[in-house]
Design a protein that fits this description.
InterPro entries: ClpP/crotonase-like_dom_sf, Enoyl-CoA_hydra/iso, Enoyl-CoA_hydra_C, Mitochondrial_ECH-domain. The protein is α/β, with parallel strands linked by helices. It contains 19 helices and 25 strands. The radius of gyration is 30 Å and the shape is globular.
Length: 619
């Protein structure tokens, strides 16, 4: 075997086969060869590429001298498979080096349409190889390991094609980081880790992947590359700035997007129906012949009806619904037209942006009532409402990439209400999601049958009307402001907003009772917050004294090395914590379960464990 050693591949013609022999395990004393048999009809270019992959990849120093990963590429789909099940596919430096090499290869190749990262074995990846980050390795080695994964994650975002994690097993530590950094995640129901983009049965995993791949390959590669780059940039921008940037980025690209045409209605047509009764205003899109396309005339009518009479204290909520099987198919593409960018096109996008910003500025809740398809800018309008009620026959999609233009502005709206991977799935595949999938992703608040839709809307509007108009207006304004603030600043603004309004509701009544020292919860450190002599009528409402004790107990002895966790727990009946003791703020009436500031306290813990009978409410 040693007599054949050579620095270049040796090619022999035997038995109608070409055999490429290449030395491997460079740097070791053992000299061995990998033999690759290839059919005679293979091209020289393909042979050279095969030889390149064999010589350029690093090999692990295992007894079998196997690579850490395996690369498959066919018909525009590149699959990188992690192949170290014995180490639970740990992300060693050599593993990450190979993933990086395969990930970044030939991005200029226009035939490359998507990249899949998969694995073998029951563990997709257990994270970093702990042997490489042990204390003995030193800070320099540890830094190198973490920087390698950070660079890999950055390249996933920079890739000009969608990168999809295909998961069928356990994902832990750095493996979760790698999966979460992919544009979308498809996993089997037996996988354990994080909230993925799609969950399917193990038998359907390959079928689901095939559907996604076909959808991606049907799109323009240039459109997806531009769209993906913008998608991640806009996530870090304030919403208003994101919309301006979208118009600036994508308006020059609006050319081949008119494969679907919508017909314009009569000039004098009224495109919406407006009705108002008992404080509820309904704005109904009424142009089913164009699939309720958002023409300039339609948007003018919506904006006028939306902004009418905000000063009227009798107005309590606004509902957006539609006639026909299509809630809205998005912009009227005839108005955009296959022409060069114009002032009119800019006005179209700016008009919808103005509607969306007006929804946020409205002093009352704006609810989307959906019973059909909401697509493209129609989906954007739905996602921009304060919340969405949909029937089980509703569907949602952002299909712009199907027609040569990325759904940039719809992406701004959906990415602010859905998880990043679910939003990327919709934007990069153009595939529809049903109402239940939209509910799981966070786009829809409630899913009901078509028969129950009217009843559900009646219950919601009744609940809203039972609240103070001023409180809802103030709360909605603060809610959207704090979303764009750092956590500490949001809490400061929340306190400043809440305190002057503590006495605003005359509809709540005191339940009597006063603070007594016997009602101070007895704290058992590290185990529970207990009120041993508790009065059930206090509903675990913390007084100022109680909050000081709780804060002191949580903060004390944090340097104590044997302290491993802190559990907040209560033992009064079926009431965990109702929030502030309103007897210190003013008149109050409270219910049981976890409510008000109690909900805030629970949500601020690192994680929660609840019984299936627990309920949470923000009163």
């Amino acid at each position: 075997m040693g007599q054949h050693c050579s620095s270049s591949p040796v090619v022999n013609n035997q038995m109608s086969k070409r055999i490429i022999k290449t030395p491997v395990a460079e740097g070791t004393q053992l000299k061995c060869y990998v033999t690759l048999k290839i059919s005679c009809n293979i091209s020289l270019k393909q042979m050279s590429r095969a030889a390149f992959h064999l010589t350029s990849n690093q090999f692990t120093k295992s007894e079998q001298y196997e690579q850490c990963t395996k690369l498959f590429e066919c018909d525009g789909v590149r699959e990188i498979s992690l192949r170290e099940p014995k180490t639970r596919n740990s992300l060693s430096l050599s593993m990450m080096g190979e993933i990086m090499q395969h990930l970044c290869a030939e991005w200029h190749n226009k035939n490359l349409r998507c990249i899949i990262i998969s694995s073998t074995g029951p563990v997709w990846s257990a994270g970093h190889d702990l042997k490489e980050i042990s204390p003995e390795c030193g800070v320099e080695q540890q830094t190198l390991v973490f920087e390698k994964l950070a660079k890999l994650v950055d390249n996933i975002r920079r890739a000009p094609v969608p990168v999809i994690a295909k998961v069928n097993g356990i994902v832990a530590a750095g493996g979760v980081q790698l999966v979460a950094s992919c544009d979308m995640v498809v996993c089997t129901e037996k996988s354990h880790f994080m909230t993925p983009s799609r969950v399917v049965s193990e038998a359907d995993l390959d079928k689901e992947m095939e559907k996604i791949i076909i959808s991606i390959k049907s799109k323009s590669r240039a459109v997806l590359a531009l769209g993906k780059e913008f998608f991640y940039k806009q996530l870090e921008l304030p919403m208003e700035q994101a919309y301006r940037q979208a118009i600036k980025t994508f308006l020059p690209k609006y050319y081949a997007s008119c494969l679907i045409h919508t017909t314009g209605g009569p000039v004098l047509q009224k495109f919406v129906e407006v009705s108002e009764s008992n404080g509820v205003r309904e704005i109904t899109l009424n142009d089913p012949k164009t699939r309720n396309s958002l023409s300039m005339a339609m948007m003018d009518d919506i904006l006028e009806a939306l902004c009418l009479g905000w000063s009227n204290k009798e107005l309590r909520c606004i509902i957006l619904n539609a006639h026909g099987n299509v809630w809205s198919a998005g912009h009227n593409l005839r108005e955009l037209g296959p022409c060069k960018p114009s002032k009119k096109q800019t006005e179209i996008f700016e008009k919808l942006t103005k509607i969306i910003l007006s929804i946020y500025e409205a002093p009352v809740p704006v609810i989307a009532e959906v019973n059909g398809l909401a697509a493209a800018a129609g989906c954007q309008l739905v996602a921009s409402c304060d919340f969405v009620i949909a029937t089980d026959k509703s569907t949602f999609m952002t299909p712009g990439a199907n027609f040569g233009i990325f759904c940039s502005t719809p992406g701004i709206a959906v990415s602010r209400v859905m998880s990043r991977t679910n939003a990327a799935y919709m934007l990069m595949t153009g595939l529809p999601i049903n109402a239940h999938q939209a509910y799981q992703a966070g786009l829809v608040a409630r899913v009901v049958s078509e028969d129950d839709l009217e009843k559900e809307m009646c219950e919601i509007t009744s609940a809203i009307k039972a609240k103070s108009h001023a409180v809802i207006a103030l709360g909605k304004k603060f809610y959207y402001e704090q979303l764009q603030l750092p956590l500490a600043e949001a809490y400061r603004l929340g306190a400043e907003t809440l305190l002057p309004k503590c006495y605003i509701t005359s509809s709540v009544h005191a339940i009597g009772g006063h603070f007594c020292e016997n009602n101070i919860p007895k704290m058992r450190r590290y185990i529970r917050v207990q009120q041993s002599n508790g009065d059930p009528t206090s509903n675990n409402s913390p007084t100022t004294i109680t909050k000081d004790i709780l804060s002191e107990e949580i903060r004390s002895d944090c340097s104590y090395k044997d302290l491993r966790c802190i559990v907040l727990r209560t033992v009064i009946g079926n009431i965990w914590y109702v929030g502030y003791n309103l007897s210190e703020l003013g008149p109050s009436k409270v219910n049981d379960l976890v409510a008000g500031a109690g909900y805030q306290l629970v949500a601020s813990c690192d994680f929660e464990v609840t019984t299936d009978e627990s309920a949470f409410i923000t009163m």
